[in-house]
Design brief:
The protein is of the alpha+beta class. It is built from 17 helices and 9 strands. It is about 40% helix and about 10% strand. It starts with a helix and ends with a helix. The model has no long low-confidence stretch (mean pLDDT about 80).
């Protein structure tokens, strides 16, 4: 949507990141980023200026208190961001990604800004989640809230560090690392004596992540029973979640990207919605031309007519009646090629920019021979959508009075006031009946006069 791209292009963040870019160039960058990851790009609008409120999310949005709307939007961003997870190392390296950090559970805008500042000042690469507490003084309670949603993507050098923990790249919470390590060791049938060796644990985790099918042989219900015996609460769901995460680390559960359908392209280009613009919708349009069908050399049933009053011959296709001789019509039609053809309808342009076509038969309830006698170029008319051609981004319309007055229930929008419409219809019928009775009384009095 252009309104979205324009808003992103003028945000303070975009101007800081691309100070030498024109608004059009920033819009191009935003389009590319939005295609790659829409969530990251939309978070750019959640800033101190509350630019997110300038986006028309819904046609009735203006009736909602802005403070409440902002609170609900924030909650939705928190849910989505934590479902996807946030890579802190990527955030430090890429300015546009940093807005994601504020939505991690337990952080918020101020803690997120302070954490990113410390990361930039003291390290080039975060090696593990534990360092957030040990070196960056993140509170223990805050760490417990946010740890499972922060992912640390490791490099080869990280594996040589004493702080290396492969599970930091998963959704598994540090409190349950010991269970994940136990599951990996049991699935691979390592010796129990090796369970205290951190190198063995990391090797087991790496091996099980490369071949996660071995985890399917584990009896997690029995594991849960053992934990209960050790006075843990029921952790059955947690154990199954750990197995899923070891099978596919931080799997993106969002719907995969798919190419736009013709229908989606139509509504994107027209800035309309499927609910507000469909077959049966009443629209306003401007006449931009007369559509004609060019004559063919073997055109059948071409019978010129002669106007007896003027003595001039009329072309049966373009209806020009200024030919004194019959031979001039054939020359006009066959040789010179000056005949524009038979008028088959009217070309119009809707207010949303979409092209439309009104066939001659749909111009009026009465028979129309020449559309130019009914409409003029530049005239604004009301019409009803008969068919939407999504592939060609055009619509077929009618402006018959009978069609415009006939509003089917299936074509009414969600906010159509049926009760008011029925009352208005009854009032018109009552007024019409009263007028007819008055006319009948006047007719009855005429003989008496």
């Amino acid at each position: 949507k252009q309104w979205y791209q324009r808003r992103v292009a003028i945000t303070a963040g975009a101007q800081v990141e691309f100070p030498n870019y024109t608004p059009e160039q920033r819009m191009a960058v935003s389009i590319a980023r939005r295609l790659r990851d829409p969530l990251v790009e939309f978070t750019q609008l959640m800033n101190f200026s509350n630019d997110v409120l300038s986006i028309p999310w819904h046609s009735l949005q203006r009736f909602i208190n802005e403070e409440r709307l902002l609170r609900w939007l924030t909650q939705e961003f928190v849910t989505l961001v934590n479902n996807v997870g946030v890579d802190l190392n990527f955030a430090v390296e890429h300015y546009h990604y940093q807005n994601m950090v504020q939505f991690v559970c337990g952080l918020g805008p101020r803690k997120a800004a302070a954490l990113l500042k410390l990361l930039k000042q003291h390290t080039e690469h975060l090696e593990s989640r534990a360092l957030l507490v040990q070196e960056f003084k993140l509170g223990s309670r805050v760490f417990l809230n946010c740890a499972g949603f922060i992912k640390v993507q490791h490099s080869r050098e990280d594996s040589l560090s004493d702080n290396f923990q492969l599970l930091d790249s998963t959704r598994i919470h540090p409190e349950t690392y010991i269970w994940a390590e136990k599951m990996a060791i049991d699935a691979l049938e390592y010796d129990e004596d090796d369970e205290d060796d951190n190198n063995v644990k990391q090797r087991a985790l790496e091996e099980i992540m490369d071949d996660p099918e071995k985890l399917l042989d584990l009896d997690l219900d029995a594991f849960n029973t053992e934990l209960k015996r050790q006075e843990y609460p029921d952790k059955r769901i947690t154990l199954y979640d750990i197995r899923d995460e070891l099978t596919n680390r931080f799997a993106d559960k969002r719907s995969p990207y798919h190419g736009l359908t013709d229908e989606e392209k139509f509504y994107l280009l027209s800035n309309e919605s499927a609910e507000g613009f469909k077959e049966g919708s009443i629209v306003q349009c401007v006449v931009v031309g007369i559509a004609r069908r060019k004559p063919k050399g073997d055109e059948p049933d071409i019978q010129p007519k002669r106007n007896e009053a003027t003595g001039m011959w009329q072309c049966p296709l373009c209806l020009r009646d200024e030919f004194p001789e019959l031979s001039e019509i054939w020359n006009h039609f066959d040789t010179s090629g000056s005949c524009p053809g038979q008028a088959v309808g009217v070309r119009v342009r809707l207010n949303n920019g979409i092209s439309g076509f009104i066939a001659t038969k749909n111009l009026s309830d009465q028979k129309v021979t020449n559309p130019e006698e009914r409409v003029k170029i530049g005239k604004q008319i009301d019409a009803k959508v008969l068919r939407v051609n999504f592939e060609k981004v055009s619509v077929d319309l009618t402006c018959k009075t009978s069609d415009l007055n006939n509003t089917d229930e299936k074509n009414r929008d969600l906010y159509y006031d049926t009760e008011a419409a029925d009352q208005e219809k009854k009032a018109k019928e009552a007024k019409k009946n009263k007028k007819e009775k008055s006319t009948d009384c006047d007719s009855a009095l005429i003989p008496l006069l």
